[in-house]
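Can't attach files on this board, so I'm pasting raw text. These are the components:
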Amino acid sequence: MLLKITNLHASIKGKEILKGINLEVNKGEVHAIMGPNGTGKSTLASVIAGRDVFDVTEGEILYNTKNLMTLSVEERAREGIFLGFQYPVEIPGVSITNFMRTAVNEIRKYRGFDPLPAGEFLKMMEEKKKLVEITSNLTNRSVNEGFSGGEKKRNEIFQMAMLEPTLAILDETDSGLDIDALRVVANGVNKLRTPENGFVIITHYQRLLDYIVPDFVHVLYEGRIVKSGGKELAIELEEKGYDWIKEQL
Amino acid sequence: METTALYPITRERLLDFYQENHEHLIANDTPAFRDNREKAIVSFQKLGFPDKKLENWRNTDLAASLRLTYDYPLQPSADEDQQKVFRCNIPHMDTAVIGQLNGWYVSKDVPLMELGNGIIIGSLAEAMKKYPQLVEPHLGKYTDVEANGFAALNAAFATDGTFIYIPDGVRSEKAVQLVNVIQHRENIFIQSRNLIVLGKGAKLTVVHCDDSYDHQPSFSNIVTEIVVGEGSLLDHYKLQNLNNSSTLVSSTWFHLEREAKMESHYLSLNGSLIRNNTYVRFNGPYGNANIYGLYLLDSKQHVDNNVAVDHASPDCMSNELFKGILDDHATGVFSGHILVRRDAQRTNAFQTNRNLLLTDTAKINSKPFLEIYNDDVKCSHGSTTGQLDETAMFYLRQRGIGEDNARMLLMFAFTDEVVSKIAIDPLRYRIEDMVKKRLQGELQICEQCVLHCNTPDHPVDFKIDVSKI
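---
Top answer:
Structure tokens for the assembled complex are below.
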């Protein structure tokens, strides 16, 4: 088992957002988490990644049988957890190359490998750029600075490709994308799917799931997973909206 | 070794000292220079050193620096080996290097270089003797000795420094680097005076460095007047990397004629107390001034940037961007005064000051002051002070970058907005490298400028290739 979340409660500034989440993700699986705004989808992603503005008040998260609560944000990342941000942060003055080289080498160091030689690193960058159809020269560009919404999301998938995570959580990667960008991002994800890694895809709409076909779909509502099913659940949600689920509760 | 009497530099002591050494001080003066000096000492007698009661000095306290005792030599001492100080490895940067030791021009038997294209570079004392017609119209004409105690003190005492003259139409493609190194066997009080004159349609890049050679305390009062003639272009850099016992009051007056353009970059990397006074005056229309500053402070360091821009003519544009990172108990001040006079229509004046405070004990006083006397202007000012962006930290750490490295990357990124304005590539690379080292706490004094003094055994002669200026 890759990820096992049991009865997870989390709050921010005393306000409880997650009220008992249970979720299991195995290697090779793609899970979609859907739900209306403000129900805790992004909070769940942040808590798995270890963002410390949230307090975990109950429950546990196991990742590869390790208790995540004992690991810092960067340790979780080095263990193979990647979070694709809903709003990627602009960092003027830090070049993408420098950013990625620092990240790749810190992860390698954690795993007991030497830093990647500069030539090999640049070759790797070129390969991964192709994966998400980035043609521009990233070397001198600052991280996300002046990027369009689509470029930012594409850059997230590019980073994911560079870091080769075991568990990737994509938080509304589809929001703000036109249909071409959506296709590029989805293709990137599909190419990175292997029997050894797992994906948690947080989305509002079923649209992305036409391209990235999930094995499981979960509905998050008021801090709990209230319904789980196969990919057909996403289609049902698209047709009927969320109200019928609320009525069932 | 001969021992020198050390004194606290009080007003009374300096007034006596002036009388005792009057003959020596005026030895090279023309009647006009002597007249300036006499007026200045009277003014200093009135003004003395500024204290915290003055609005302009409210947040910078000189008391501790003034309480120390100093030696105040009135001529370059013979026993200090100038060769040794400047026997440094010069890495790749295409500049002509001129040196000052404790404020004195290092002549190496050539006190004044006169180049074929009319450029004159050398000792101000020598220029006052040899070219009074070039010096007299400018020296002391832009400073305000009636109101500024340090300017008055400097005008009364200073007898040397650097003189640079670029004639009409001469565009110096090579940067001139002016390196002032402080090295003395005792605590030292230094007063140095520089004059830079660009004629019409001229161009000059000056990199002005203040370095310490050792850890001896010093107090420097440096006054520089820079005239940017009609249609001329000045690119000016001030690099400050002094030891943690040094006090520096550096005042620069920029006088811009019609259509003159200037950029100035203040990079304060180290020093105990640094006060930069920057005065820009637009004396004719269509002038343009960009003034940038970066200060990186820790321990109990203090940097005060006081910038006054006088829009005395219409259709001019000024833009200020000052950024600082303050750690530990460091304190900083930014005061930006923009004066738009009645006749200065269509003025554009912008001012930004941004600060990162890394601890609860670090402190910044940011004080914009706009004084506008006509209504056809575009002015803005903004000031922000904050901590490192928590969301950005999370983003970097989520990619596996450790907290310390993430912090370093963000601080480095914060400085980039100012550093990226440096137009000379090798200098920008050097500064980037120094900023990195500074943020990691690895920057040593004497490791900046082209005089890379950390390899003193490497026998590179201190020579100026004048043919290439």
